Amino acid sequence: MFALPSRAELKRAALLSLITTALCLVWPLGALAQEAAQAAASGSAINIDLGTGAGLTQRVVQLVGLMTVLSLAPSIVIMTTSFVRIIVVLSLLRTALGMQQSPPNAVLVSLALFLSAIVMAPTWQDAYDSGIRPLMDQQMELPQAFDAASEPVKTFMLAQVDRGDLALFTRLSKITPPTDVQELPLRVVTPAFMISELKKAFTIGFLLFVPFLVIDLVVASVLMSMGMMMLPPVVISLPFKLIFFVLVDGWRLVAGSLVESFQRGVGGG
């Protein structure tokens, strides 16, 4: 039989473990501090110099604005691109198939991002050539570069937006409707574009639901006629919906139709 350790031995073991853990934590920190001191002494440290003088406040404000834009970049990508329509349609397609977890959200979001990149590539290239490149070459100031870069994005959104939604947000913003919709600010165009995208996504989702709903109804009718009312129809209809979607090459049709719906550039009326 093994003898149980005494209380003193347990205390010594716990103290030894505590000392070992502390050494393991402190030793790397000391090495990192030494490397940081050597880097500072050699002049290789990273410094952010905002300068001095009257322009200091302006540069600080620009830096804060840049950090804010970078933190909001994912939201900007969602609000001003084709991502909204694509991800909503893919989510509704998964629901129509009767699968709640497959494909997983990560797969749907990744596919939506790649399809959005295909749709938005010409617009982003125009925005880069119009505003970002002149700003990097110091040919434009930041406000002018922002206006020039946002113009192609606004043109893309106006090509897809419903005119009724545009009139709604123009009225809610309490601004006078301009003669040219291109003169509308982004705070009006962006929410109108998002509402229009949701409307179109739901319309496409309804069309996707119809064939799978027919399969569910047929399977439910067959099960009731056979007296198998205790068997959930979803269990039987799911394989039929999957094989139907595969046979018609559904993923290719859905992806191609989504991208082509933007490339046609037909706005709502």
Describe the structure.
The chain has a domain at 70-205 and 250-263. It has helices at residues 7-42, 56-71, 73-80, 83-97, 105-136, 142-160, 163-172, 186-225, 233-247, 250-263. The protein is extended. The model has no long low-confidence stretch (mean pLDDT 77). Helix 5 (105-136) packs across helix 6 (142-160) and helix 7 packs across helix 8. Helices cover 76% and strands 0% of the residues. It is built from ten helices and no strands.
In short:
With 269 residues, the chain is mainly alpha-helical. The protein contains ten helices and no strands.
What do the pLDDT scores average to? 77
Q: What is the H/E order?
A: HHHHHHHHHH
β-strand percent reads under 5%
Major sheet: none
The structure class reads mainly alpha
Contiguous helical run count: 10
Radius of gyration: 30 Å
Which key features would you list for this structure?
mainly alpha; 269 residues
List the helices and strands and how they pair.
Blueprint: H1 7-42, H2 56-71, H3 73-80, H4 83-97, H5 105-136, H6 142-160, H7 163-172, H8 186-225, H9 233-247, H10 250-263
Helix pairs in contact: 4-5, 4-8, 5-6, 5-10, 6-8, 7-8, 8-9
